[in-house]
Amino acid sequence: MIFWELALRNVLRNKRRSLSTVLAIGLSCAGLVLFGGYVAWAHLASETHAATISGHLQLFKQGYRTKGAGNPAAFAVENYEGIKRQLREDKVIGPLLEMVTGQLLVQGMISSADRQTSTVFLGVGAAPDDLERLARWNPHGLFDVRDLAANAALFAAGPELAQDDPDGISLGVGLARLLDLRMPSHGSAEARPTVELISQPPSGGMANMISATVRKLSTRALEELDNRLVFMPLPLASSLLFPGEEPRVTSIILLLKDARDLPRVEARLAELARQGKLALEWRDCWDLNPNNVRSVRMMDMFFLFAFCIIAVVLVFTIYNTMMMSVMERVREIGTVRAMGLTRTDIIRLFTIEGLLLGLAGSVLGLLLATGISAIINRAEILYIPPMVTMYAKLQVLVTSSPGIMAASFASCLLVALLGAFLPARRASRMVVVEALRS
Amino acid sequence: MPGIPKPLVQVIDARKTYVLGNRRVEALRGVTLEMPGGGFVVLQGPSGSGKTTLLNLVGGIDHPTSGKILVEGRDITAWSDDDLTRFRAKKLGFIFQNFNLIPVLSALENIEYPLLLQHFPRAEAKARALDMADAVGLAGMGDQRPGELSGGQCQRVAIGRALVTGPALVIADEPTANLDAATGRAIIDLMHQMRDRTGTTFVISTHDPAIAAMAEMRLTLRDGTLVNS
Q1: Full domain range(s) for residue A252
Q2: C-beta atoms of A335 and B104 within 8 A
C-alpha cells in the first residue's frame, strides 16, 4: 500500500509533466475507442447490408455455383413452396428464421415499343413485401438511412416493387436512359412507360415475352448494374421463364433472427443434405458479398495499424516521462535503496507510477470518447460508403461496445506499464553509492 | 572468550580500488579496525582520505575489493544484493550530509517510512514515528514537508528516520557539513542523547575537530590508511 501512496505522490510531484502525459494517454485512448467504435459500426453495418442484399443464406440447386451464373433459369429450384415449408417446420432451423423468401434471376431483352429501343437486361424476380422487409432489416438498431434528408430522393417514389402492383417493375437509371424512357412527373396523370421483356425459357422453344410498366427508377451502385438491372415481382418473372407452371426460384433466401446462428443453420442444412432430405447447395452472405468482408477486413487492418502507431508513440511518451522522473530522483533512489528497498521494490514503485499515469489517462480517454461519440452520433456527418449509392451517417458505437472500451483501456494500461518498465529497470540497477553521490 | 563482548563492527584488511578511465584509485589500502557496540565513533581525515568509502563498506552499500567486513560477527562482504538490502533495513540507519529526505512525504511520514517497509501495522508505525519525532525535537512539525523545514530540522527528521527501526548501527556521513556550527553542535548533541537512549552505535565522518572531540572513539584516515585509533 505504501508503494501506491508514494507512487501517487510522486506522480503529483511534477503536475504539469504528469498532466501532459495523462492528456497524451487520454487522447490516444479516446482515439482508439472512437476508431474502434467506428469499426464496430462498420462491422454491424456491413453485416446488416449484406443481409439486406442477400439474406444470411441462399440455397441453390446443386451445381449452380459452378455453372448456374451462365444460365440461372436452367438451375431454378422446383418445389419452392414445399422447401419453404420444410425449412419453416424444421425443429432446428425453423425457430431461428426471421423470413424465408425466394428470388428468380432472369436474363433477356428489354425493349420499349414506344421509344423503339431495346437492350439486354438482368432481372431479379422477388416477392415485393419480402423484398421490402429484407431492405428494412435492421437487427442492431443502426441509424436508418431512409431517415436522411440527403437520401429522400432515392426513397421518394416508394419501394422498388409493390404487392398490389403485379406488373410494376423498377429499372436502373442507366437502363432507362438506354431505353430512352421518361417517367411521368410526380402526381401527373400521365401513364407509366411500358416495356416488353423477352426471355428464352430453359425448356427451349420460342422466346417468351411479357409486358410490364415501370414504376420506379433507382440508381444502382455499379454502372454495369445500373445499365442492366430490373426488379420485378416474382410471379411476373416466373411467368416469363415458366409460363403456366408453378413458380420456381433461382435461390431460396433465409433471413435469420440473429446472424450468429449462421453456423448452426449451416450445420443443420449439411445434416439434412447428408440424410438426403435436401438436395440443395448454399452460400452464406459473406460468400455472396465478398466486398463487404473485404471492406471490414480493411477497416480492421486500418485499426490495427493505427493501434500500433498509437502504442509506439505512447510507449515513448511514457518512457520519456518516467525516464525524466528517474533521472531527477537518482539520489532519492540511492537513499531508499540504502534504507532497505530492494531492486524489485524500485521496479514496483516506478511501474506503479507508470500504471497510475496510464490509469488516469485511460479513464480520461474513455470519458472523452463517450462525450465525443455522443457529439458525432448527434451530428449529421454524411458520406457514401463503397458499393452503395445512398448516404450513410457516420456513427461510432462506443457505449454499446463495452468490449472495445475494455480493450482500449487495457491496451493503454499495458502500454503504460511497458513504457514505465524500462526506466524502472534502469532505476533498479543503479549502484547505490553512485546514486547517493549524484 | 566468555566475558569479553564481541565488537559490533570488524574491518579486516579492507581494500577498495576504483577504476576511473585508465586510472586506478586506491581509496582504502588495507584498513583493519574494530568498533564496539553502543559507541560514538568519529572518522576524521582530509577529503579523499577514504572516510566515505569506509562508511559505505561498513554500511553494506559497497563491496571491498579485498578484505572482510564483519557486523555482529557476520561477514557481509560475500552477501547478495538482496541479503545486504534486508540487512540494511533491519540493522542499519543512514544519515546523509544533504539529509536525503523524501520530498513528497511529510516529516512524520519520512520517519514512518522505514517501518512501513518492514511491514509494521500502520497504527503502530505511526505511533512509533510520533514518539521518535518527539524524541528528536520535532513535536508539532510532523505534517510539514522537507521543503518547509530548516536544515537542522531536516537533519532531525533524518536522525529520527535512521533510528526508528531500532538499528544496531547508524552511519552518518558528514551530517553537520551543511549546517551552521551551532546547529551542527545541536545535532551531534542529539545523536549523543539518542545513543544514550537507544544504545545504538553511531559512526560519523566529519572534518570538524570540535565534533571529533566529542567522540568516544576517533579514527583518522589519510590516503586510505588508518593512521591512528
Answers
A1: 63-278
A2: no
Cell representation of residue B197:
537512549
Q: How far apart are CA A259 and CA A208, in angstroms?
A: 40
The upper half-sphere exposure of residue B95, i.e. CA atoms within 13 Å in the direction of its Cβ, equals 33
- Which of B104, B155, B163 to mutate to test binding with chain A, by most A CBs within 10 Å of its CB? B104
Q: Check whether A320 has a pLDDT greater than 80.
A: yes
pTM (two decimals): 0.82
ipTM rounded to 2 decimals: 0.92
Q: Which of B113, B118, B126, B157 to substitute to test the interface with A, most A CBs within 10 Å?
A: B113
Residue A200 shares a structural domain with residue A346: no
Shared-domain flag, residues A155 and A262: yes
Q: Does A264 lie in the same domain as A225?
A: yes
Q: Which domain holds residue B56?
A: 37-63+80-228
Instruction: Give the pLDDT band of residue B1 (cuts 50, 70, 90).
Output: very low
Interchain contact A136–B (C-beta under 8 A): no
Judge if A329 and A387 occupy the same domain. yes
Same domain, A247 and A161: yes
pLDDT at B149: 95
Helix, strand and coil percent figures for chain A, each rounded to 5: 55, 15, 25
Nearest residue on chain B to A340, alpha-carbon basis: B89
Task: Give a yes or no: residue A283 inside a domain.
Answer: no
Domain assignment of residue A310, yes or no: yes
Cα A46 to Cα A37: distance, rounded to the nearest angstrom: 14
Subunit contact A339:B56, Cβ cutoff 8 A: no
CB-defined contacts A:B, below 8 A? 62
